[in-house]
Amino acid sequence: MVVRSLDEKETDRLFHALADATRRDIVVRAAAGTLSVSALARFYPMSVTAVQKHVDVLESAGLVHKNRRGREQIVTSVQRRLETARNVLDQLEAAWRERLDRFADVLAELEEGDQQ
Amino acid sequence: MTVTELSKDLDEATLSIVAEYPADVTRVWQLWADPRLLERWWGPPSHPATVTEHDFHAGGTVRYFMTGPEGEQYHGGWRVVAVEPPHRLEFQDFFANEDGTENTDLPVSSTVVSIAAIEGGARMTIDTRYPSTEALEQALEMGMEEGITLALGQIDDLLAEPVVS
Questions:
Q1: How far does CA A74 lie from the centroid of its chain?
Q2: What ipTM was assigned to the predicted interfaces of this complex?
Q3: Scanning every residue of chain A, which has its alpha carbon at the shortest distance from the alpha carbon of B36?
Q4: What mean pLDDT do residues A25-52 have?
Q5: How confident is the model at residue A66, as a pLDDT?
Q6: CA-CA distance, B2 to A3, in Å (whole number)?
Q7: CA distance, residue B42 to nearest chain A CA (Å)
Q8: What is the DSSP letter of B101?
Q9: Which one of A33, A114, B100, B164 is at 20 to 30 Å from A1 when CA atoms are compared?
């Protein structure tokens, strides 16, 4: 897994993105659950377009990810997506571990059969 | 302990798992090549597998279904990419509809099985590349996530501030 630190520009973008109360709130809400831009806009006294701009700033700082689902723009936090990806690999690992144990059992039964 | 090594790479969406068995390479291979043996270990005890098609050649297809405790069936299969007995097998593992045809809405993973002789037995390596649960794919599109996650840890205090109502 590649772990790297942010360069100066990325750090600037990150802190700029977080230097606004609405944007911080969007990050918190996105971490709690996936929301559309229009659903987010209902939380703030501003237009959908204004919220959209905040989301864009957060996205360019890499704090949230935005993708289109039908007519909606869906906002997810990067952390949440990472967790999901990790879960997929963890499930795959668990499935293979069990499978390979059963594999050993079948081999052992075959070996026993050979000896009889 | 069957499994001797394991590595997961979130960026590459791969899982590599190594197991060692006190058995001949040809015997280990048989467990993949013989459908009756394959179905003895492929599915968990609660969901045993039934292999309905086993065309074990490059370009061939293996189809199976697993039966759950309530009689429910889960269908799946492999598109066989390479078969080099008794050392190497490559396939793409897909989900299938009830009639056994491939369900193209669900992700396909690619798996390479390598079997090598070692002292006293065989070592089997399973390399799986998992491309596309949507979330995994999305997470992988971005090169920055690890750095961001670290940075996020450092600015938890900032985020703990009261939010706008």
A1: 12
A2: 0.76
A3: A106
A4: 88
A5: 85
A6: 30
A7: 6
A8: -
A9: A33
pLDDT band at B164 (very low <50, low <70, confident <90, very high): very low
- pLDDT one-digit tens code per residue, A77-89: 777 666 666 776 7
Chain B residues in contact with A90 (beta carbon < 8 A): 8
Half-sphere exposure of A35 (CA within 13 A, CB side): 21
CB contact under 8 A, B147 and A84: no
As a whole number, mean pLDDT of residues B111-140 equals 77
Chain length of chain A = 116
- Residue range A62-77: average pLDDT? 82
Q: Mean pLDDT score of chain A, rounded to an integer?
A: 82
- Chain B: closest CA distance from residue A11 (Å): 9
Contact between chains at B139 and A84 (C-beta distance less than 8 A): yes
What is the residue-averaged pLDDT of chain B? 79
Residue with tokens 């772990």: A3
Q: Tell me whether residue B85 is exposed, middle or buried, using C-beta atoms within 10 angstroms of its C-beta: 0 to 12, 13 to 18, 19 or more.
A: middle
The sign of the CA dihedral A13, A52, A36, B107 is negative
Q: For B8, which of A63, A65, A93 is closest by C-beta distance? A: A93
Alpha helices in chain B (DSSP H): 25-33, 35-38, 134-141, 145-154, 156-159
